[in-house]
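In the previous lecture we treated proteins in isolation. Real proteins rarely work alone, and many bind small molecules. This record shows how such a complex is specified: first the sequence, then the SMILES for flavin-adenine dinucleotide.
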Amino acid sequence: MKASIIGSGLGGLLTAAKLSKAGFEVDVFERLPFIGGRFANLPYKGFQLSTGALHMIPHGSRGPLAQMLSEVGANVKIIDSKPMAMIRKENDEIIDFGDFRNELPITKKVKLGTILAYSLKFKPESNISFRDWTLKYFDDDFLLRLADSFCGWALSLRAKDVPAREVLETIGNMYRYKGSGVPVGGCGAVTGALADIIRSNGGRLHTRSHVDRIIIEKEKAVGVSVNGKEKYADLVISNSGHAQTCKLYDCKDKDYLEKIKAVRPSKGIKICVSADEPLIGHSGVYFTPYTERINGINEVTHSDPNLAPAGKHLVMSHQAVISDDIRREIDLGLSDLKRMFPHKKYEILLVQSYSNGWPVNRAASGKDIGNRTPVSDLYIVGDGAKGKGGIEVEGVSLGVRNVVREIGIA
Ligand SMILES: Cc1cc2nc3c(=O)[nH]c(=O)nc-3n(C[C@H](O)[C@H](O)[C@H](O)COP(=O)(O)OP(=O)(O)OC[C@H]3O[C@@H](n4cnc5c(N)ncnc54)[C@H](O)[C@@H]3O)c2cc1C
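The predicted 3D structure, ligand included, written as tokens:
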């Protein structure tokens, strides 16, 4: 069996690794000169910055991605973050994420325990947002800010823009798999290891290879046209999301096209900072509920010092984009850093903004429409088709798991 894969992002490479390991003849076509999509390293002044991700794997060495990497034999070491996360309070005091309930009056603390336990089991059926869900039970400024900080960091959305059931599913996964980790070598080490596996299984990776059309015969995908040349296959997997994939063939399914219209990408801004001294001092997430824009910060050099030149730290902040004025959004993020670290010496290395065709998530969490398309033997993988409750690359892995199951391999 022959599979053509459009795009070498994490979803494309994971699928290619699984299929090539199962004996498929695999070709991955990538339009860019490098592989990895938004999960690739970007070397800069001796730092390993990235094309997208903050070098973090949301559920660390026990999550869905780690499981899949191990199944395909990819040689990646993931260092679990300790502590998992800290929270910066309004008075600048730092508390452990696990202790956030202690910030609440005793009645709210007890209520939160009960409501959370119940809601994790019986997720709200309605489309109530996470903000409204929080407000419904607790009119509490700290909790509302924490909800925004968490959703901004993990999903690049505000709590008002995510269905409560999706966030609760994500929290359930946090309890199941525990907290985040950093792959040694950064995100490029993950996609690089997958590329090695694909090649060692006889698969082929073609860069500068733009897929301009998906060939459909009798409502079945039978191949792709790459830089104008037709390549036939039994199966086509697209890593470019539903909307982009649709443009590669003459999709006429009205219901599907309507569903796609409702899918919005999530936007974000990442600020990469070099610091001589640690700014946050640990490898976990630093939630910042009392800033103007920044939702959280990490300092990955506590897990892998080689992500920065000797003696330096690589610090990255992330913020969801709130308005269309990107310049102002960036300025507010930069001011947040100044306010949080007034006496620390640091240098801004790079500010990256993500939207439209190169977003934080192709389908904002809770808006995914699954991995199938109206065409048989054409599937979508990547963060435009994540599995339920899967944050970022964990969701990408859950989606790939769904696809390989449908194809008939475990
Ligand atoms: C600022 C930021 C921070 C993030 N931080 C984290 C984090 O710390 N942890 C985490 O888990 N996730 C994080 N993410 C999200 C994560 O990076 C993405 O979810 C993930 O990398 C998406 O992978 P994908 O499989 O969707 O592929 P993509 O990265 O979207 O790659 C798709 C590839 O397909 C190629 N392609 C598209 N169309 C064609 C075509 N027609 N022909 C050939 N090639 C084509 C593209 O060039 C691209 O290389 C972050 C994202 C951003 C932007």
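Summary for your notes: The domain at 268-354 is CATH 3.90.660.50 (Polyamine Oxidase; Chain A, domain 2). The mean pLDDT is 95.
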